[in-house]
Amino acid sequence: MIRRNAIPIAAVALALLLVLFFYSSGTGRETWEGLPQRVGLGEHVGASHPPGSPSSSAGHSSHAAQDPHYEEWNPKLNFKPGSRLPSGHNYTSVLVIAKTKEENIDWMDEKLPNQVKHVYVADDPKAPLHPPKNKGHEVMIYLTWIIDNYDKLPDVAIFMHAHQLTWHNDDLLGNDAARMIERLSRQRVWREGFVNMRCSWYPGCPDWMHPGETEKNDFKQEEILLAKSWSELFPLDAVPAVLAQPCCAQFALSRERIQAKPYAQYVWYRDWLFNTQLPDHLSGRIWEYVWQFVFTGENVHCPKENVCFCDQYGTCFGGEEAYNDFTTLRGELGDRERDLREWEDKGKAIEEAEKKGEHEKLEKLEKPEPGKDKDFRREIDRLRPIVDGLKDAAEKRGQDPKARAEEAGREWNEGDDF
């Protein structure tokens, strides 16, 4: 008797469970479709039609799945110009250096004796300053410094490599890191929030990395890895079609710009570096064209070269056209100097082959055109004083804070400094 009465009760309970299951499934599906899922180049996945489109909402109530307000999920930071500081303000700054044990940095104390320096040794865990893990090249060190100093930042932080003379330091500044650091306008860093230490566009601008690229490029090995890395670092930001800024991971930041992002965000970035399966050199190179997005919100950040050289380093040619004229003349001078070197190298190769009696080699060697070296030297002698004169005039012009402001296109009032 008890069993007979239990059968209808069980049937009713089962029916209720089935109704509840289907209701929950429908609601869960709508909720899932509304979650912000971004993959690849910003495609929305989870339904055959983007949530909120006419096709996806047909047959549903007004509560059908809609694209969430992404600004609420991942608020876009409002990167503002630096707050105004009084003329003559003594800007504090720290030079953050990423180095290995083998790299010599004696030049820093010699050339920059008064500059506060925080030198991290990537491959020496016993060094006073070292990263928690030797991975990602300078990226681990830069992020570690920000994390460790977030609440005690100077006005300006300068992030640099350890070598003094290198090709990726601008040749207009002698390829010299010491000169760049010494002449860097702390006022400009404070105004802009983020500045690349390199002004010259190549390599890096105006259209450099393409995260959607699928074909390997030996010169840009990280390019085909950028889309996946981007989706991991910035999961709620669509992967951009282009990433660009002047190379090569040396830049300066204001305190305000660093603190525009919460502390936890930098921890998140460093955790990605800890956990990524990418090789050391590639994880570092990924960030070379990501820093500008982190600190400006722009995937392409390519300030005009003349403005950068003028407002940042005090070399002011008087405008973009005058700067372009200078670079054309400097390029011609460089071409003639290269032509002369090649002419001389051909002559040296012939002399060496003659001394060694290498007759077969002599027949194959290209002979320098007689008298052409005099033409090259004559042109070099004509161009060099012009180029040097324009550069000297630009340096002198850059000593005037008003001239810097005019070339940069910013307001300047009597009594303002640089």
Descriptive labels:
47% helix, 418 residues, 17 helices, single chain
Task: Please provide a brief summary of the model.
By secondary structure, the chain is an alpha/beta fold. It has helices at 2-33, 54-57, 70-73, 106-111, 138-149, 177-183, 186-192, 226-233, 255-258, 263-275, 280-288, 291-296, 305-313, 320-356, 359-364, 372-397, 401-408; strands spanning 38-39, 43-44, 93-99, 116-121, 156-161, 194-196, 251-254.
Can you walk me through this structure?
The strands form two sheets. The chain has a five-stranded mixed sheet with strand order 4-3-5-7-6, sandwiched between helices. Strands 1-2 form a two-stranded antiparallel sheet. The termini are far apart. Helix 4 (106-111) links the parallel strand 3 (93-99) and strand 4. It is of the alpha/beta class and 418 residues long. It has two domains: 93-303, no CATH class; 320-408. The chain contains 17 helices and seven strands. It has helices at residues 2-33, 54-57, 70-73, 106-111, 138-149, 177-183, 186-192, 226-233, 255-258, 263-275, 280-288, 291-296, 305-313, 320-356, 359-364, 372-397, 401-408; strands spanning 38-39, 43-44, 93-99, 116-121, 156-161, 194-196, 251-254.
